[in-house]
Automatic annotation (TrEMBL):
It comes from Ancylobacter tetraedralis. Pfam families: UDPG_MGDP_dh, UDPG_MGDP_dh_C, UDPG_MGDP_dh_N. It is an enzyme of class 1 (oxidoreductase). The active site is at 263 (nucleophile). This is UDP-glucose 6-dehydrogenase. GO terms for molecular function: NAD binding; UDP-glucose 6-dehydrogenase activity.
Length: 438
């Protein structure tokens, strides 16, 4: 099949490349000319494990191409995906659909013959119907079916998630579109991935419901962590103790600095706004977003309180900046709040991240200093905070760390160290939800 992927970011590039790996002919399109130029040179504009190799192989096989202009690819496509960004709209938290609408107009003017247009971007319920109107207005003669096919991949494990998904959700009531989508995903159904066909509005809602539920799960365990700190319990054991119950499940029960990233913050807000306007407010999710915001702010205070010296003029080493490991994505990373609250109190921040520093420089204040490794980062610092649980931080040489720090203080916001390992070496250790362990 011929596929055009509009938007070549984390989702578009991974899904386009995986579709080409299934044997489809794919063109990934992006308005960002420098991104397309880099891809044509064989350079991958994002960090995603395994992606470089997969792109190279499929380009070499002639199944994967890149373009800044959609005309040629859309004209011959059986399926056109919209995988552009849907960020929060400034001021009201609604999903900003301007990129999606613009893409739909361009597709409408270009498509020839029966074409399935698929929203892979996360879009609020009803967007599919809006796109039908936009397309009918721009090109009344066009023979187009609009389908919802939300994406559930996780950055850092995106290829595996795309190729072996827990499920694929396809929202359409058009029989021709259903046939095309079934053929497109046939290689996955051979792998026994459940393909859930449903009505379009339902598919759009499934994506938001899934993200809101996961955000709620994280927030729940974070509150249990706070309680453990007050009454003396261990949140990791609480998580294990409840997670072994099949009705609850063990995933997404890691207490930490609050959720961030390119999806949960904006998607919970957008769901809240949709629900408020529909007259069915999601009070649970409203609370989740408020609790999470205050948690992110509290993490900076936690670091400041752990220091033995006044904040002004102190140096804090920050390990990990991206919102999670194995990605360079800094969007809404908890590190942004933490670093800012340290700087606001006059702390000097020195940071290290294995792959995220180029992106971090774009979003963090210029006064942040960047180090070449974890020990260089810790050198002479009055305390160290682990913000992102990269593997590279899980087995640090603790004796060396103690030697290079001015004060042996570690705030471990991801609970990656057994407290005893540090305390026995004379560190002051502050974790999350593991009683009073300093
Ligand atoms: P991204 O910002 O990495 O990529 C979007 C790309 O679209 C950009 O490169 C931009 O230049 C391009 N673009 C915008 N308008 C265009 C147009 N008219 N024509 C061609 N290109 C255009 O975004 P992302 O992280 O890939 O997310 C895309 C969508 O997928 C969002 O709705 C997001 O919520 C959803 N999603 C993301 C993830 C994730 O982990 N990142 C997971 C599931 C779903």
């Amino acid at each position: 099949m011929r596929v055009a992927m509009i938007g070549t970011g984390y989702v578009g590039l991974v899904s386009g490349t995986c579709f080409s790996d299934f044997g489809h002919e794919v063109t990934c399109i992006d308005k960002d000319a420098s991104k397309i130029e880099r891809l044509k040179q064989g350079e991958i504009p994002i960090f995603e494990p395994g992606l470089e190799d997969l792109v190279r192989r499929n380009v070499a096989a002639g199944r994967l191409q890149f373009d800044t202009d959609l005309t040629q690819a859309v004209r011959s496509a059986d399926v056109v995906f919209i995988a552009v960004g849907t960020p929060s709209r400034r001021g009201d938290g609604h999903a900003d659909l301007s990129y999606v609408h613009a893409a739909a107009r361009e597709i409408a003017r270009t498509a020839e013959g029966f074409t399935v247009v698929v929203t892979k971007s996360t879009v609020p319920v009803g967007t599919g119907s809006d796109l039908e109107h936009i397309i009918a207005e721009a090109a009344p003669e066009a023979d187009i079916a609009v389908v919802s096919n939300p994406e559930f991949l996780r950055e850092g494990a995106a290829i595996e998630d795309f190729k072996r998904p827990d499920r694929v959700v396809i929202g359409t009531d058009d029989p021709r579109a259903r046939e095309v989508m079934a053929a497109l995903y046939r290689p996955l159904s051979l792998n026994a991935a459940p393909i859930l066909f449903t009505e379009r509005n339902t598919a759009e809602l499934i994506k938001y419901a899934a993200n809101a539920f996961l955000a709620m799960k994280i927030t729940f365990i974070n509150e249990m962590a706070d309680l453990c700190e007050k009454v003396g319990g261990n949140v990791q054991e609480v998580a294990r103790g409840i997670g072994l119950d099949g009705r609850i499940g063990s995933k997404f029960l890691h207490a930490g600095p609050g959720y961030g990233g390119s999806c949960f913050p904006k998607d919970t807000l957008a769901l809240m706004r949709t629900a408020q306007e529909a007259g069915a407010p999601t009070r649970l999710i409203e609370t989740v977003t408020t609790v999470n915001e205050s948690r992110k702010a509290a993490m900076g205070r936690r670091v400041l309180e752990a220091l033995d010296v006044p904040p002004r003029g102190a140096t804090v080493a920050v390990l990990g900046l991206t919102f999670k490991p194995n990605t360079d994505d800094m969007r809404d990373s908890p590190a942004i709040n933490i670093v800012q609250s340290l700087l606001d109190r006059g702390v000097k921040v020195r940071a290290f991240d294995p792959v995220g520093m180029a992106e971090a420089r774009k979003v963090l204040p210029d006064s942040v200093e960047y180090a070449s490794g974890p020990y260089e980062c810790a050198e002479g610092a009055d305390g160290l905070v682990i913000v992102t649980e990269w593997d590279a931080f899980r087995a640090l040489d603790l004796d060396r760390l103690k030697q290079v720090l001015r004060s042996p203080i570690v705030v471990d916001l991801r609970n990656i160290y057994p407290p005893g390992d540090l305390i026995s070496r004379g560190f002051k250790y502050v974790g999350i939800g593991r009683g009073h362990l300093t």
